[in-house]
Design goal:
Blueprint lengths: L3 H23 L5 H23 L6 H28 L8 H9 L3 H32 L2 H4 L10 H5 L2 H15 L5 H11 L2 H13 L10 H25 L3 H11 L6 H9 L3 H28 L1
Helix pairs in contact: 1-10, 1-14, 2-5, 2-8, 2-9, 2-10, 3-4, 3-5, 5-10, 5-12, 11-12, 11-14, 12-14, 13-14
Length: 305
């Protein structure tokens, strides 16, 4: 597990990249259209390449065991988050309840978490993170959307299975099992694009939260949600891993990824559905900035366990 100094170094780097996104958006160098386009580029090209590249390693019995454990553990964490979302926020107003429930279920593990795991745990950490994210991505496009929508609306499973990140995981598993090495030009392209994931994702996050209402740092509900997302959930996950006797790598990845702030898709989905878009942006901003302190703290706690 990374030391406090290493975790702080990563967080300072991420914060600097995020500040650049805020600065460029505030000065009008980039706009909402650019941010929307960059989101699509990251989700459809850069992040899938990063996922593919992470599967380029030797297949061992230990690796198979770790991927199986992290997948089952992630599914259990999604169930835990769903229960917390239903119990803790059931009495919130109609315009806030779906936002809080979705953000509890769907963290920013895909953008922020992937970058941090890669920095802290290396290639193996990135591979395990890709597997960890499968249940979350299924949950966010199925159960997560039901928080905003009326009963009876069908889940688009075909669209989910065609998501570039899900496709990249299955292709990556194929590379891992067959141990096939892509041609050098293709491999360099995949690796080069994948290496852009961390800086581009953090730059994007900065641009997305630059216009968010800062008043939510005084909003009790947004702060309570952040405490749940950054504190309670990773605490329960760490305890669960301890009881299950998982290895240090799996425990560290599961706990760190569960300590991620609200995902940027929270604000996007809320705006699309017309349900508490401003509050959603506030929750994303508050939890993201507080995570800059919470994640290094969790790294140190996990290292001492």
């Amino acid at each position: 597990m990374a030391s406090l100094g290493e975790a702080l170094s990563v967080q300072v780097t991420l914060f600097a990249l995020m500040l650049l996104g805020i600065l460029f958006r505030r000065r009008g160098i980039i706009d909402e259209v650019f941010s929307a386009g960059l989101t699509e580029v990251i989700l459809r090209l850069i992040l899938p390449c990063s996922i593919l590249d992470s599967f380029r390693m030797s297949l061992t019995a230990e690796l198979l065991e770790q991927t199986g454990v992290i997948f089952v553990l992630s599914a259990g964490i999604q169930l835990l988050c769903w229960v917390l979302a239903m119990v803790l926020f059931r009495r919130q107003p109609e315009d806030r309840r779906p936002v809080l429930q979705y953000a509890t279920l769907c963290s920013n593990a895909g953008f922020l978490g992937t970058g941090i795991a890669g920095e802290l745990f290396g290639g193996l950490g990135l591979l395990l993170t890709s597997v960890y994210l499968i249940p979350q991505r299924v949950a966010m496009w199925t159960v997560g959307l039901t928080f905003f929508r009326s009963r009876g609306e069908r889940t688009q499973w075909g669209k989910l299975l065609r998501h570039p990140c899900i496709v990249a995981v299955f292709l990556g598993l194929g590379l891992l099992i067959t141990q096939w090495e892509p041609p050098a030009p293709l491999l360099r392209t995949i690796t080069g694009l994948g290496s852009c994931n961390l800086p581009m994702s953090m730059f994007l996050i900065g641009s997305l939260i630059s216009e968010s209402p800062w008043k939510y740092f005084r909003d009790r509900t947004a702060l309570c949600f952040s405490a749940v997302r950054l504190g309670l959930i990773p605490l329960l996950v760490a305890l669960l891993c301890g009881l299950a006797g998982t290895g240090e790598m799996v425990r560290g990845i599961a706990a760190i990824l569960s300590a991620m702030p609200a995902g940027g898709t929270t604000a996007i989905v809320a705006a699309k559905e017309g349900r508490g878009a401003e509050f959603a942006a506030g929750c994303v901003t508050v939890s993201t900035l507080l995570s800059m302190a919470a994640i290094p703290l969790w790294c140190e706690i996990l290292r001492m366990l």
